[in-house]
Structure formats: C-alpha cells, structure tokens
Design a protein that fits this description.
The chain is an alpha+beta fold. 27% of the residues lie in helices and 36% in strands. It folds into 2 domains: 160 residues, no CATH class; 208 residues, no CATH class. A hairpin with a 2-residue loop joins strand 11 and strand 12.
Length: 412
C-alpha cells in the first residue's frame, strides 16, 4: 500500500516533467522587430523529436553521432539557451540575402570560447565573423546574421527597448517543423516547412495533386533548368531584385530552358623573350557554360525593347548583357523578345500554361561552387532536383534529395 502511495506521485511528477520537456513550448516571440517583412520559425522541440525518432530507427548511427558531437563541439554546451522557436527574420527594405536572429546566452564567456574553437574571427567590439556568418554579443544576447549592416538598428529596437511587441507563434506556425511567413501590415501569409526522409517541402496548401500533375508532365525531361511563369509570378520573384521591372518591361509571361556544357576557354597572356619582344601565350581551361533559350512575351514588344535598351542591357551587337554568359543574341518579334545563346542552339518545349520552375542537379554545376565549404558542396551534391509550382494562390516548393540509406535529418 505504501509503495502505491509513493509510485503514483512519482508517475505524476514524471508525466509533468515529460510534458514540460517535450510538449510545453514558450510561444512568445520576443525577437521579431516591427519592421520585419518575413519570418522563419523552427520548432526546436519538434526538430529534436524528429531527430531522436530517426536516430532510434537507425542503430548504426548511435555511436557515430556521439563521436561527431565530441569532435565538433556540442551546440548544447556552447553557452546558448536553445529557444522553443528559433526566430529568423528579414528586415523591410534590406537586401534579400540579409537575414537575422537573436539568441539568448546562458554563459557569454563560454559562447566566446565556443566561437574561438570554431575559428570565428574576432573583429573587435564583441563582433565575430566566419564565412558569411556575422555575430555581435550584447550582454546576455547574441545577434546573428548573414550581414552585420543592421546590427546596430536591431540592438536598439529589440535589446535596448524596455517594451517590445510580442507575436504569438500560433499566428505563424501550425504543428509543423517550421514555417515561413510573409508580413505586410496586418496581413500574414504562412507557409509550412515539412522535413521528410528524402525531401523538404514548403507549401501553403496540403492538397498537392495540382502540382503532381504538372510535375508528371516534366518527368521525362533532362534539362538543367525549365521554367514557365505568368505575370503575377514574375512580379513575385522580381520583388527580390527590382519591384518595378515587370510593370516597366510590360512582360506578361516568361518561359526558359537551359542545359550545362563543359567547354574549353582560351586565356591569352603575354610574355617577353630574351630580346624583350612581346610573345603571345595561349593557355586553355575547362569551364561550365549554359546553353539557353528565353522567351519573354509582352503586352507591347516595342516598349519592352525600349525598356531593355534604357537599362543598357542591349549592346550594339544585340547581345543581352544582363546575362553574364556570353555570347547570346536578343531579337524582337510581334509577341515580345527572345534571347538565345549562340554557341549551341536549344529549342523551347511546348507551353504548358502553368507556373513552375524545375532545376535538376548536374555534375557540371560543382565546378562553379569553389567558394562553398566541403559540407555545403556535399549537401548540394545530394540534391536531386528543386521544384517550384504555383496555382492561383497556392504555392509549393520541394527540395528533393537522392535516395539514401539515411533520412535527411541524419545525413545533413
């Protein structure tokens, strides 16, 4: 009887402990500024649970995981307080490549030691850098970003203000591993992030049938790039670069196809002989170049041509200079303009009248990735294709990996 009296309270305490450790989440998002126009959330507990579940199904990785964590240094022991929701945001009117996050530190000194062990460069004033990661330590917080341009502004708005607006995670994420949210005033558009064994999906609609139909039509192709976009989708993508380009160019649709080819590139240099005469020297190297065809349909072909000329994207030889891969030829017709590479012609496939972008992996792509780390190259080489599809207000992005013995969460 006495044993029962002891066991029952212990089981209740264990149940409460499991709830707070595994299920309870702090949904207050304190580190998103008011001028953020995009937010990425990662559910840390969901990610941990998915990792442990995958690890349990693959015993071969049990001891290997321990070896890796010892050699690499555990993030858990780095002095960072792991949040229930990792908050990554983009600030309005900054470059698309600039993303930031704020982390709480349990032990700032231990975190600095962790950074030194990871070969981060100390830039002074509590700022550190490694590759394209920038960090600033401010008291018990760390501002992280792909740039340091907005660090001071973020510090003043989020770390030196007594009261900050707090978003609730339920507004941005619904029982998924992560989410991407685009914010415009009071309007928030959410996209779920799901991680499967060999693919990552980002979508705002669980009904994938409409996209599977489009994808099946392209399965037989082998081009490196195929895309077809209407005016609205061109406008959505151009927001990342130039908001006015669609309206100014009068473009109403875009279709393109591209292949990769390895070619010999001639490098001419000059040396001097013993008599100081200039001698031409030729060397050759193999480079990867695309062969492509791009069809831009327009409301008014003449105005489209005039706009491209005004941007100085068409030179005297009718080459489209906005594409760095030369030589090419741009021509005007009744429906718009067409750009073709001239080294090797490539024909456009028939129009599907759908919105999609399909990028297949290609071994020739790796020669252009010299600036990436070994890990980044390994991840890219593991990708089979990247697919984007859009129908009405539904969007779907899939990153498909090659079949492997391990799920992505254990591979990457």
């Amino acid at each position: 009887m006495k044993k029962k009296k002891i066991i029952i309270p212990l089981l209740l305490l264990l149940a409460v402990a499991v709830y707070f450790v595994v299920f309870h989440k702090d949904k207050n998002l304190r580190y998103i500024p008011e001028n953020a126009d995009a937010v990425v959330l990662i559910d840390s507990k969901e990610l941990t649970g998915q990792y442990l579940f995958s690890l349990a199904k693959h015993p071969s990785q049990w001891f290997e995981g321990k070896t890796k964590s010892k050699s690499a240094g555990s993030l858990k022991d780095s002095g960072i307080r792991i949040p229930d929701f990792l908050q990554i945001f983009h600030v309005k009117d900054t470059k698309f490549s600039e993303w930031y996050s704020i982390l709480e530190l349990k032990d700032p000194q231990r975190f600095i030691t962790f950074l030194k062990n990871k070969k981060f460069i100390d830039k002074g004033k509590n700022c550190y850098k490694k590759d394209q990661i920038f960090l600033m330590i401010e008291g018990n917080h760390c501002i992280a970003g792909t740039s340091d341009l907005a660090f001071e502004t973020i510090k003043k708005k989020l770390l030196q203000t007594s009261v900050n607006p707090v978003l609730n995670a339920d507004k941005l994420i619904k029982n998924t591993l992560g989410s991407i949210s685009f914010i415009s005033g009071q309007n928030i558009q959410n996209f779920a992030i799901e991680l499967h064994d060999d693919e990552i999906e980002i979508k705002n609609n669980s009904n994938q049938e409409i996209f599977n139909v489009i994808a099946s039509k392209l399965q037989k192709g082998n081009q490196f790039l195929e895309l077809e976009l209407d005016q609205e989708n061109i406008r959505n993508f151009s927001r990342f670069f130039n908001k006015s380009i669609v309206d100014s160019s009068h473009a109403i649709s875009l279709k393109a196809i591209a292949n990769l080819e390895q070619v010999n590139d001639t490098i001419i240099s000059y040396e001097y002989d013993d008599n100081f005469n200039e001698v031409e020297k030729k060397t050759f190297q193999k480079i990867t170049q695309p062969n492509y065809s791009i069809d831009i349909q327009s409301k008014d072909a003449g105005k489209t041509w005039a706009y491209l000329q005004s941007k100085k994207w068409i030179n005297g030889e009718n080459q489209f200079t906005a594409i760095p891969f030369q030589p090419n030829k741009i021509t005007q017709n009744n429906d718009g303009v067409v750009i073709n590479s001239t080294r090797k012609t490539i024909s456009l496939s028939p129009q599907l009248k759908e919105n999609y972008i399909l990028i297949r992996n290609n071994i020739l792509l790796y020669s252009s990735l010299k600036t990436l780390s070994t890990t980044e190259k390994r991840i890219i080489s593991d990708i089979d294709y990247v697919w984007y599809g859009s129908k009405s207000q539904d969007y779907w992005l899939k990153i498909k990996a090659k079949k492997g013995n391990l799920p992505l969460i254990l591979r990457w």
